Amino acid sequence: MKDRLQGKLIVLDGPDGCGKSTQAELLVKWLEGEDVPTSRFRDPGDTAIGEKIREILLNPEHLAMDTRTELLLYMAARAQLWAEKIAPALNENHCVILDRWLSSTCAYQGFAGGFGADKVIGIATDCLERVWPDLTIILDVDLKTAAGRLKRQLDRMEAKGDGYHQKVREGFLQLAEEQKNVLVVDAAAGVETVHKKILELISEASFT
Ligand code: TMP
Q: What CATH number should be reported for the domain whose range is 2-204?
């Protein structure tokens, strides 16, 4: 397992309330138990610049923000995260677990926001050093289950309403159909069941 997973970039993604942070934590614990050197980051964030961009993006006061502005800010935070954190960790042969990545921009700004997932991928290709991870796992969840898991004040993106978030979910599922190495897990199941399914997908992944 160690040889297979060292130097790999694995993304957990999905609609708000899908449980990816809990799953990322469990996955990191499991990897460490398998003796795989591991780093975990969240996108957007985890750099000084990225955390400031995250605050601008999620601040509920910024209701006027246009989809294109969102898209470019997410991409900017991502470029910084790559340069400062992900690239060095991969160079040290760590397995990198990422909470969100380009798949989110495709589903949120591309699909739900109406900008177009293909255009998002085009911009990413021009401005990111690496576009696709080795594996992206989408934690798919229905709106009702997801809402039940968000028991705090909603941020600007979470507060966009059911219609938007239904499209986000569809966007993730469509991406999984169109892109290789983007797989879906039913995340409405219990935490342990989802964790086992994620481990299954990782151990079966061909990483090509
Ligand atoms: P998080 O709270 O799961 O870290 O994600 C922050 C929010 O930003 C979440 O509502 C999803 C949204 N988002 C996008 O709209 N586009 C993106 O490219 C990313 C990475 C996140």
A: 3.40.50.300
